Amino acid sequence: MKAAQFSRFGGPEVLEIVDLPDPHPGPGQIRIVVRAAGINATEWKLRKGVLNFGDGLPQTTGRDVAGVVDEVGEGVTDVAVGDRVFGVSDDGAGAAELAVLTNRAPIPPCLGFIDAAALPVALETATRSLDELGVHRGVSLLVNGAAGGIGGAAVQLAVARGARVIGAASAANHNYLRTLGAEPVTYGDGMPERVRLLASAGVDLALDVAGSGVLPELIDLAGGAQNVVTLADIDGAKLHGVRFSNGFHGHAFHALTEIRPLIEAGGFWLPVERTYPLDRIAEAHQVSEHGHVRGRIVLVIS
Question: Mean pLDDT score of the chain, rounded to an integer?
Answer without folding.
Answer: 93
